[in-house]
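[Discussion] Sanity-checking designs against the backbone

I'm trying to build intuition for which residues belong where. Below is a structure token string of 572 positions. I'd appreciate it if someone posts a full sequence so I can compare it with mine line by line.
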């Protein structure tokens, strides 16, 4: 990445932003330091030189590290053995163990643009539209990245590096024995040479691979008498081995995969992408004709089996576990890459159990991942893991355009940005970082001073020429007043909630009493009705008695009186 600063061909726009450094510092001096360290052989001296480079650009306040991108993995708990990848799009699925259920595993991988859409032609020697993750499962290089950015053996078991007589280094690789490609072809030095013959043929080195040192600094390559693969560079390049460990373009394909087989002509029938057509360079006199590859076969842990496409979009890709893999056969027998139209579809499939694995950034939102992480029920079936920051996002402050050509303005901007609050709201799964490169990258684990942290008072001091302290005191007084008002508001809100609860309780009690009152009223009205009926009956009986008295005399009168008493007793 830093080598792209030198000529502005890479570095994501950093080169033009460094045009106007403060004081006696200059972009030219910094880039000279980068060029020098890339030619350093000694690791101790390289570490010291990189430390000087990091301090140099840091003091110019031109690059503000914001956050470190971590790679999330969500997997059904029937899978275990998670190990984080060691570079972008490195998803080591072959390390997983199947603790229960089928050994056929479904995955929704993070692609270059988020959700997976296609694996392209899966040609190890070219770039888009191929995907890093699928090429990484199928193909391997001479070396690979291990933990902490360390270069470790892959198809080469060991190597030596010695200075040569053309201004660079000679790399001699001892190749791994007993390795076969997925189609049965043997891995040996002739295959390594064939791959390099095509990757760096004629103008391809400059026109297609000139963005890094392997493309620009590799002079020639051959097999020695011991069948070791030898590469001679025309310039010392400290990151050469690191670049050979990248997922593309120096991964090895089977000799049978070349159009024309092992005798394929690198100029007339090159493995480069068909869409490149014929490639001519500015320095090379040859022209390369691109014909692509005839088949997909590497030495990696998974073999390409098949893919389904609809309307130019890949809907499903099937990989089979490589039972003969030199580093141990994966437990997963079939790996099925499934395409989903939306992140909602991915989440639903994962929670329903139809999807076993989500690996990579841009597939599920931070909100969905946090929901699954924090939900006790969901986390019983879905395990969530994250890599360490593997890539840092930066804010580039252009020193070539006012007002950012003033270093104090750049520092003001830096100290006025509350990275913590920004990440908490927008990117809660990312980590706040202080360095341009991840600390796990080679020569990057160091503390830099001053620390570019959020400090509003410092930002004000840097941006004001007048009565700064008065302004700060007013600001502090205003903040204090706001704090007091906020506390009073919270107290009143609490009291209001208490009163509302009391009012609700009184309303419930009132309703209860009203029901009881209504019940008693009904009972009273019923009793009053009964008394009124009894009184009317007594009046009627008296009338009857008077009638009987008039007609029957004393005996009848006594009899009527007895009947009256009996009636009254019945009523009461």
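Best answer:
Here's mine. Compare freely.
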């Amino acid at each position: 990445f830093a080598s792209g600063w030198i000529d502005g061909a890479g570095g994501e726009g950093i080169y033009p932003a460094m045009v106007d450094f403060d004081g006696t510092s200059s972009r030219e001096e910094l880039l000279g330091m980068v060029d020098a360290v890339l030619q350093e052989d000694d690791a101790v001296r390289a570490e010291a030189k990189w430390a000087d480079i990091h301090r140099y650009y840091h003091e110019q306040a031109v690059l503000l590290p914001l956050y470190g991108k971590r790679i999330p993995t969500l997997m059904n708990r029937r899978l275990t053995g998670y190990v984080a990848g060691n570079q972008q799009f490195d998803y080591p699925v072959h390390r997983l163990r199947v603790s229960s259920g089928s050994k056929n595993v479904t995955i929704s991988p993070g692609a270059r643009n988020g959700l997976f859409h296609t694996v392209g032609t899966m040609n190890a020697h070219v770039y888009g539209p191929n995907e890093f993750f699928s090429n990484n499962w199928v193909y391997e290089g001479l070396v690979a990245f291990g933990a902490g950015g360390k270069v470790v053996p892959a198809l080469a078991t060991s190597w030596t590096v010695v200075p040569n007589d053309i201004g660079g280094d000679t790399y001699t690789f001892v190749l791994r024995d007993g390795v076969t490609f997925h189609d049965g072809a043997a891995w040996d030095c002739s295959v390594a040479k064939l791959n390099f013959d095509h990757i760096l043929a004629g103008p391809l080195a400059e026109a297609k691979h000139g963005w890094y040192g392997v493309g620009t600094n590799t002079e020639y390559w051959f097999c020695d008498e011991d069948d070791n693969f030898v590469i001679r560079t025309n310039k010392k390049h400290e990151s050469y081995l690191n670049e050979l460990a990248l997922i593309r373009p120096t991964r090895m394909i089977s000799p049978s995969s070349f159009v024309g087989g092992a005798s394929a002509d690198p100029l007339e029938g090159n493995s480069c992408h068909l869409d490149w057509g014929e490639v001519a360079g500015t320095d090379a006199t040859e022209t390369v004709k691109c014909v692509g590859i005839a088949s997909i076969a590497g030495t990696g842990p998974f073999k390409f089996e098949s893919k389904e496409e609809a309307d130019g979009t890949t809907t499903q890709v099937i990989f089979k576990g490589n039972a003969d893999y030199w580093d141990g056969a994966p437990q997963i027998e079939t790996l099925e890459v499934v395409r989903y139209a939306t992140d909602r579809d991915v989440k639903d499939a994962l929670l329903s159990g139809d999807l076993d694995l989500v690996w990579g950034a841009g597939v599920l939102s931070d909100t969905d991942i946090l929901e699954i992480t924090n939900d006790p029920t969901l986390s019983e079936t879905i395990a969530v893991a994250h890599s360490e920051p593997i890539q840092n996002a930066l804010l580039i402050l252009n020193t070539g355009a006012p007002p950012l050509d003033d270093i104090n303005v750049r520092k003001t901007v830096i100290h006025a940005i509350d990275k913590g609050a920004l990440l908490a709201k927008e990117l809660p799964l990312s980590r706040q970082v202080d360095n341009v490169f991840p600390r796990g990258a080679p020569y990057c684990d160091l503390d830099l001073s001053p620390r570019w942290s959020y400090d509003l008072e410092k930002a004000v001091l840097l941006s004001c020429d007048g009565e700064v302290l008065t302004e700060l005191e007013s600001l502090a007084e205003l903040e204090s007043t706001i704090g007091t008002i906020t506390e009073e508001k919270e107290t009143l809100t609490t009291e209001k909630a208490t009163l509302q609860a009391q009012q609700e309780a009184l309303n419930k009690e009132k309703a209860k009493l009203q029901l009881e009152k209504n019940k008693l009223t009904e009972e009273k009205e019923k009793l009053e009705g009964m008394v009124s009926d009894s009184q009317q009956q007594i009046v009627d009986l008296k009338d009857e008695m008077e009638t009987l008295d008039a007609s029957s005399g004393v005996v009848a009168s006594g009899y009527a009186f007895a009947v009256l008493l009996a009636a009254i007793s019945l009523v009461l």
